[in-house]
């Protein structure tokens, strides 16, 4: 059984879902998106991401990240053109954050984290390896992604698998039923609209809010990635650094401002971000101070956060007429590191839908 599928959204979730669907069964896939790789818009969060692999989720919700790591690490090891490389990663914990309960990514900073089983070289840091103000931490070899290379690489892989791309903006999920490139109606719609799910007709998810992330992309390289549990500059300001693969610069962050829609970089925030990074890791500036940090650009991305958690589920009501909608949105700041796990579940949901439809002979088909 051949299936016509329309994917809404060309961020990392949409592209990965389209790729895995195209690789799985007999399908004809169209990706419809307002923003495409190469575009920079605050509402198009994927280009602004770091992006790396430092697990955020609690253990009871770790499936998405745990199932993504084997593929992401395979790409880093064997597919250099994807723009992913291995980088030693440090997670720093401050005692004051643990005592106050303040941390933007709480599960990342727990002692004895579940993700220790993912990384063969995971270990706790000794006291003499900790920077000032940090009371404990761990290290492991993770990955960092050059989004300017990886997103186009995903597009290329999708095209190789026969996926068609169309520019388009929609106001209601029902419109997608008539947007398949063949002109035939879509059997399945994949909703990876991110923050757009808040206003998309037929979805209108009131749990969706932005988490404003301001970053600074700099020329300087950081020998290791790091993420620290908090800052003294405010509960919604964070500090991290990661060097992108293949000359992509180093991303310094940042902010984690829930409900803030402001798309404009704040120059004073840029200064604080750089100051925090250099204070914690002077090697970013070769010990010369913040004046030696060479800025490429500052930017803002709005992370698509869902208060009740990521939504990856089947929905037969949004369109009706027997059309399946599979939602895959609400990832906040972990869209890349959960992308393959979530796309895997998208495939499972579509597969279940297709397999439930018997052929005229009553034999079930792998599409």
Plain-language structure description:
This protein has 367 residues and is an alpha/beta fold. Helix content is 22%, strand content 28%. The protein has 6 helices and 15 strands. The protein has helices at residues 12-24, 63-78, 95-100, 147-160, 267-280, 339-355, and strands at residues 3-8, 27-33, 84-93, 123-124, 136-145, 164-167, 188-191, 208-218, 225-228, 237-243, 250-255, 257-258, 295-306, 311-320, 323-329. The strands form 2 sheets. Strands 3, 4, 5, 8, 9, 10, 11, 12 and 13 form a 9-stranded mixed beta sheet that branches. A hairpin with a 2-residue loop joins strand 14 and strand 15 (323-329). Helix 1 crosses helix 6 (339-355). The N and C termini lie close together (4 Å). Residues 360-366 have low confidence and may be disordered. FAD binds at residue 173. Keywords: FAD, Flavoprotein, Oxidoreductase. D-dopa binds at residues 54, 303, 333. Its cofactor is FAD.
Distinctive features:
alpha/beta; 6 helices; oxidoreductase; flavoprotein; D-amino_acid_oxidase_CS; FAD
Short description:
By secondary structure, the chain is α/β, with parallel strands linked by helices. It has six helices and 15 strands.
Instruction: Please provide the count of β strands.
Output: 15
Percentage of β-strand residues: 25-35%
Cα-atom radius of gyration: 21 Å
Give average pLDDT, whole number: 93
- How would you characterize the largest beta sheet? 9 strands, mixed
Helix and strand composition category: alpha/beta
Percent helix among the residues?
A: 10-25%
How many DSSP H or I helices? Answer: 6
Give the low-confidence spans.
360-366
Spell out the helices and strands N to C.
EHEHEHEEHEEEEEEEHEEEH
First-last Cα distance:
4 Å
Query: So what's the overall shape?
Result: globular
Domain FAD dependent oxidoreductase: 5-349
GO cellular component, one term: cytoplasm
Organism: Sarocladium strictum
Pfam families: DAO
């Amino acid at each position: 059984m051949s299936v016509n599928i329309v994917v809404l959204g060309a961020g990392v979730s949409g592209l990965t879902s389209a790729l895995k669907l195209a690789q799985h069964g007999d399908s004809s896939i169209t990706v419809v998106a307002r923003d495409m790789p190469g575009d920079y818009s605050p509402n198009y969060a994927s280009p602004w991401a770091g992006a790396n692999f430092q697990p955020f989720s609690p253990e009871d919700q770790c499936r998405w990240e745990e199932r993504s790591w084997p593929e992401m690490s395979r790409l880093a090891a064997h597919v250099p053109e994807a723009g992913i490389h291995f980088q030693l990663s440090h997670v720093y914990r401050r005692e004051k954050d643990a005592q106050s309960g303040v941390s933007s990514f709480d599960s990342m900073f727990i002692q004895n984290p579940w993700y220790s089983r993912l990384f063969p070289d995971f270990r706790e840091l000794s006291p003499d390896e900790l920077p000032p103000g940090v009371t404990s931490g761990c290290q492991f070899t993770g990955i960092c992604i050059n989004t300017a290379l990886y997103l186009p690489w995903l597009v290329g892989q999708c095209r190789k698998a026969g996926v068609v791309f169309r520019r388009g903006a929609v106001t209601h999920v029902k419109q997608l039923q008539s947007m398949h490139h063949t002109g035939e109606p879509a059997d399945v719609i994949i909703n990876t609209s991110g923050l757009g799910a808040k206003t998309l007709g037929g979805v209108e998810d009131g749990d969706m809010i932005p988490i404003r992330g301001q970053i600074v992309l700099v020329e300087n390289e950081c020998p290791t990635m790091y993420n620290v549990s908090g800052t003294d500059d405010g509960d919604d300001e964070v500090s991290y650094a990661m060097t992108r693969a293949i000359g992509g610069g180093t991303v310094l962050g940042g902010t984690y401002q829930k409900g803030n829609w402001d798309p404009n970089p704040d120059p004073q925030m840029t200064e604080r971000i750089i100051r925090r990074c250099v204070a914690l890791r002077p090697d970013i500036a070769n010990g010369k101070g913040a004046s030696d940090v060479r800025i490429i650009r500052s930017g803002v991305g709005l992370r698509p956060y869902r208060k009740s958690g990521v939504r990856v589920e089947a929905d037969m009501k949004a369109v009706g007429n027997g059309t399946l909608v599979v939602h895959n949105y609400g990832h906040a700041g972990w869209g890349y590191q959960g992308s393959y796990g979530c796309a895997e579940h998208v495939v499972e949901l579509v597969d279940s839908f297709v397999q439930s439809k018997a052929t005229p002979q009553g034999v079930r088909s792998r599409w």
